[in-house]
Amino acid sequence: MSNGEQCRLAHRNLLINTTEIAQMANVSVSTVSNWKRRSDTFPEPVGTKDGKPAFDYDQVSGWLRDNNKEFHDNRMRSLVWEYANRVRGKMDAIEGGARFVALLHLRKAASEYGLEVQWQTLVDDGDKESWVSYVDAIETIEREAKHLLSNYVVDYVRSLIKSDDIETIQGNVSLVDAIDLPNIMDAADMVIDAMWDNRQAYLGDNGSPLYHVMAEMANTWAKTCSEPNPTFYDPACGGAFVAMRVALRNPQYRFALADINSVAAVIAQARFFLQFGTDATETVVLNDLIRKDPFPDLKCNLSVVTPPMGLSASSDADVTDHRWKYDVSNGGSRQRAFSSEVAFLQDCIFHLDKEGRAFIALRPSFTTSRLLANLRRRMVADGVIEAIISLPRRQLRDTSIPLDIWVLSHGTKPNRVYLIDCASATEEAPQGGLPVYLSEPLNGYADGKYRWMDVACAEILAEDNVSLAPDKWVKPEGMKPKNICLESTEEISEIRQGLGQIDDESNPLRDLPSSLANMKESRVFTLRELVDSNEAELIRGNTQSVGRDAVYQEDVITPQILSEGMASLTKSGNVGKREHITEPGDIVFRKLGSTHAAVDVEGGHRMSHTVLALRMKGDNWIPDFVAICLQAAWNQKDTPRNIAGQIDPLDMELPVVSLEMQRKLVEIQRAADELKHLSAAAAGYATTLCNAIRFGAEEG
């Protein structure tokens, strides 16, 4: 092979070195070297890359396939990253991504319009005239068909030709040509993901949660559309990431897209063409929405918009524009400067048909700001706000601020607004009743962990600030006035009962000594000693869980039951021949971790295999005293004599004291438990009172 032929092959095909072959086949570099040395059919090098011999990707993948070697076909990914590495640092990331996507568009046009010969001329180092001729041919074909699908891409490439930047894309035509047509859309998305960073977020992206949930809402709503030729509208389309998700699942829609950014227009137009070719149904307009309506006669069934945030329309904008129905000021002959979000909000409402829905992302200040109270008041009164959905932070990759989705309708005039809080963490299961086009996407987005309520428009309008913030209206169960009243009644009853017990003259805490002086250390027995002397019996639980989820039946004592209390237990019925059953007065405790012990007063229960029962014999022990001692610090796992982290139950110790002393300890412990219960009730009541001060309380 001559040097000229090698250069031509290297120019047109993807080259990979031995390291990349090893990564591709998931083997070591030495294994690749062995393949080269031992196989007569292994491809010959066609150039160099990174100082190493370079091989043609297609020849290598063919050899691997023919020799039954498993490998990852990452041809497209390698081509994209090779392009990204070539242009990184030489031009802005936006420009680099736009040029590659524009080249992909031209590549697709060759197939769609029968321009393969002209395209091949460009691949074979076409000159400036060849590029002019090629884009002119695309323009002529589309104008004759009256279906402009490439006009912004053509204008963009022409600008590169006029500025003599054509050489910067000429060197990368071969990379684009090497990408298979079925993968061309994936290549476009891959280069965008590879090159764009947070600075390009206004163009959109594939990964932001906001775009995902808005697209899901749009798709769910689109399923309800009965119109034969519905239209999707996005006046701030960016790279058309939401529009594309809707188009893939709803081919009946036509798409009216606009953006003020010329690169956005190129990206949006190219992505639709790469995905659908001449079947694309979008119209893209480069437009300043505040100064001009991009589609004056449009009435759409569906609109999804993420407007530019924090920008202001100057006061010299056309205040007589028929779209500006809602004056954000308090009146006057001339409207002051207003935010870009207000303009997009009103534009969406104007373009909705009577059965349509719009989903627009706005900053939370739009639901609460007093400067916008008049706007909210008029919109609520007109019934154009169907729902407000508050989202958590980090829904867009360029900002951590939270966002709200406003769901707008036009013509239905609902008398209630759905206020949905997805920003506050909750374990409450959402109640039913939301429209399906809201509930289905939100259940997938937030795993069903959100709160909502429908609030009457009259109730919202009666509020001084006309707040639409979901967290103002949607309260957790413990913050609803009726629940607050109910909780306070129960807590007050518990406190009074606890105080009555403390005030009782027989309360052992009233007769405490001044100190515990002159008490001698007691003699102790281990459980092993008590069992060996037949003064006690240790029974190990042997009931197994049932079912795939390892669930215990309701009559089985488990460590969880010991921690939470035994009141929920039922009596054991059908018991296996070898299963152990507790008797009244048995002290049950768990043998793993810190010890929890309790007295099974009634008996008749089975025990899981991690629970033991201590059955004392004779009248020398009070069961409650034994349970207290088993939970004492000296019987816990974290002791100096318990290096391994788990104590043997037979090594646990019980002090030998009189029944009178045992009884005294049990009484003191019961009094302490009552105080603990009173303290918890008092703390709960303080929280409830605080909530009542903030949210009010009323009888149910």
TrEMBL record:
Domain spans labelled DNA methylase adenine-specific: 226-427
Pfam family, any one: N6_Mtase
Keyword set, alphabetical order: Methyltransferase, Transferase
SUPFAM superfamilies: DNA methylase specificity domain, Putative DNA-binding domain, S-adenosyl-L-methionine-dependent methyltransferases
Any one GO MF annotation of this record: N-methyltransferase activity
UniProt-listed GO biological process terms: methylation
TM annotation in the entry: none
Name of the molecule in the record: N-6 DNA methylase
Organism the protein comes from: Bifidobacterium criceti
